[in-house]
């Protein structure tokens, strides 16, 4: 799906209004536009149930990335109706490796005697990457605790990943 620079700016502006995205320039040269898309957007088709064992990360949504500079932005909701509470963590990965400078996110979900957990937690991530070859970026999530027998398992819903080609990045 090709998205014009104008549409990309609108998508970025909408994300900024939600407070989840970084400020970037979405302009690109005609040579860049002809070579690859200025933005790639993917949304998870369904909710993704995390494993019953805490620890390992699961892929929630991924996007193919042509070589070059990219700003990656992800959003997801962690949902858990079980006890005790749990921590769900999401991060952006590039070709199966965690991006060291990416901003990850954690949600405290579930309930346990007024511990401060919530049933649904918003997770937001951002990263800036440079790739020398085509690959892929993924939003991957995990949770900390092993789920007790008979309890529901944490899951991720409404997840999306947006890759945009930036102009000059300062930072």
What are the key terms here?
2 helices; 11% helix; 10 strands; Jelly Rolls; 171 residues
Question: Any overview of this molecule?
Answer:
The chain is elongated, with a radius of gyration of 17 Å. Strand 5 (86-94) and strand 6 (97-98) form a beta hairpin. Mean pLDDT is 76; it is low at 1-34. It has 171 residues and is mostly beta strands. The strands form two sheets. Strands 1, 2, 4, 8 and 10 form a five-stranded antiparallel beta sheet that branches. Strands 3, 5, 6, 7 and 9 form a five-stranded antiparallel beta sheet that branches. 11% of the residues lie in helices and 43% in strands. The protein has one domain: Jelly Rolls, CATH 2.60.120. The protein contains two helices and ten strands. The longest helix is centred in the first third of the chain and has 13 residues, at 5-17.
Q: Would you tell me the overall average pLDDT?
A: 76
Strand content: 35-45%
End-to-end CA span: 29 Å
The level-1 CATH class: Mainly Beta
Overall number of strands: 10
Structural class: mainly beta
Radius of gyration, taken over Cα atoms and rounded to an integer in Å: 17 Å
What is the CATH architecture term? Sandwich
Number of helices: 2
